[in-house]
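pasting for ref
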Amino acid sequence: MLKLRITFVDNESGNKELQKALSKINNDFEIINKTDIYKGRNGSKYSNIYLDVENKNTKKITKKDIKDLIKNADL
């Protein structure tokens, strides 16, 4: 498991960038936990979000898998 902290400028542009980043992270990782957005201290323009993630399990397709698919295909 990995713990990630994303710090971003908390404005419209920064929130769009955050959403794009979260989408990309979600493509490669299983998001186990996502916190609410934490506002920066003392009027900071930055905010943070914390993620717990794991690599998604992917199966590599072998030549044997392809041969079996073709053999069992109803063509």
